[in-house]
Amino acid sequence: MRTGSVLRPLGSLLFLSLGLINFSHAEKADQDKPVILEAEKVSVNDVKQVYDLKGQVLLIKGSIIVTGEDGHIEVDPEGYEFVDVNGAPNKTASFRQRREGPADEFMQGLASNVIYNAKTEVLTLTGDASLKRLLNMQMIDQLRGWKIEYDDVKQYYRVTPPKDAQPDDLPLARAILSPRRKATLEK
Q: What is the pTM of this model?
């Protein structure tokens, strides 16, 4: 069966489960790292633990790097960050995080909007989104679509089209996935 024929009926929702042996998780050391924020303008409400950033946003927390044009960060009482960063009209927002396990494995995404919930470890990329899993700078997995959700705890990707998508627009989601056995053995 060809990949294209599988993706077309699933154009409204592409769901890929990746519960696999030796599949690594997000870098756990990131949880204990300080947050470094840079922007042209930063507004801080230390009582509510809310930070608003405008212009050339750069957020670094351990191996997590998020860039964009405007950002909003909230920290819950347990210390988990909720990050929402938007790109500029002609420039996307980005997300990159090192993964536990092999030294050079990363998740890297681009979209109009990047949302990362550190508590649930869910990354949501919206608006002409792309997400890659890289090992030694070689692509292992690649996804494209209007909206991509990546849940690191449950180990799945979900790619969904815009709400106004028409059946004639299919395929609206695309995934290139390396065979797990080969990817696991090459680590």
A: 0.78
Q: Is the peptide bond between 171 and the residue preceding it cis, with omega within 30 degrees of 0?
A: yes
pLDDT (tens digit, 0 to 9) for every residue of the chain, 187 residues total?
Answer: 333 333 333 333 333 333 333 344 555 667 778 889 999 999 999 999 999 999 999 999 989 999 999 999 999 999 999 999 999 988 999 999 988 766 688 999 999 999 999 999 999 999 989 999 998 888 888 999 999 999 988 888 899 888 888 777 666 777 787 776 544 444 4
Q: Which residue has the tokens 């004639």?
A: 168
CA dist., res. 92 & res. 108, Å (int): 13
Domains in the chain: ranges and CATH: 3-186 (2.60.450.10)
